[in-house]
Amino acid sequence: MTIEHDFSEHPGFRRTFRKGHLTLGIFFPIEAFSGDLPKMQNQLELARVADEAGYAALWTRDVPVRDPYFGDVGQIYDAWVFTAYVAAVTHRIAIGTGSVILPLRAAVDLAKASASVDVLSGGRFLFGVASGDRPVEFSLYGYEHAIRGEDFRTRLTDIRGLYLNEGPIEDIRNTLDYPLELLPKPSVGSSVPILITGFAQQNLDWLAKNADGWMTYHRNPPEQKMIVNQWNEAVDSTREGRIKPVMQSLYLDLTSDPNAAATPIHLGYRVGRNRLKELLALLRLAGIAHVALNLKYGSRPALEVIEEITEHVLPHFPSHE
Length: 321
Prior knowledge:
The protein is an alpha/beta fold. It has one domain: Luciferase-like domain (TIM Barrel, Alpha-Beta Barrel), CATH 3.20.20.30. It has helices at residues 11-16, 43-53, 79-89, 107-120, 135-141, 148-163, 168-176, 204-210, 221-234, 273-286, 302-312, and strands at residues 23-27, 57-60, 94-97, 100-101, 125-130, 194-197, 213-216, 246-254, 263-265, 268-271, 290-294. It has an eight-stranded parallel barrel with strand order 1-2-3-5-6-7-8-11, surrounded by four helices. Helix 2 (43-53) packs parallel to helix 11, helix 4 packs across helix 6 and helix 8 packs across helix 9 (221-234).
């Protein structure tokens, strides 16, 4: 049975996703840097700029420890602490995790943290989740990397149940005949919007049944269209006007030449703003609902890039107020 939740009144989901449209977001850290350690300077100021400019969402990363062989450490700070920190200094923009590693944490902690950020942010939270891809982290937490797919399914099922005061908490309540309850409840309806990253060691049918949206990776527009079509075949995304959107990340080095053609970089492009508009339009036609920009490989200051995109690109891909 497909999991369906109505997030039409959820401010973060509504701002970011609408059928047939594409919005823009930004990944933390919002800066260019070499190696795996960002400087993390002016991040809150840049978050406020993105909020006031009208971007749809900001995205944080969950990287518990530095693995120098993997390539990056996200925004350095704990994903939950930093996400709440950013939510507290912004007003309209959605705040998402891209993504929290479910197999490493207890379901009760994940449910309480996600619902807490959702409520405290005024319903702006988007809960991106993943199965994890760094084996050393599993050893540190005392879990088995080889069974992360099974653990992912269990955690997700338990989190959904905890939002509803069911599942593991219901089992304890029935045993003790005691009014045990997890608080707070999600801001809208019976769940926080949950977007699954990649395949999370699952098949597409399972993802389509259990996710509220899908976070996939950069591909060229024709390939992305094929992937989105497969997703749409696996899930009914039109019932009662509800959608299960597909979003992607995009590493971006915006050149000073506005007409520079796109050249590939790691998981993205070096490109001028006019060609970027064309690429984003093609992704919109492919069915992508949101593109989260990552500026790690940029050759220009982040604020300068954000201001140029805000003036020349963002008006063509506005968030949904």
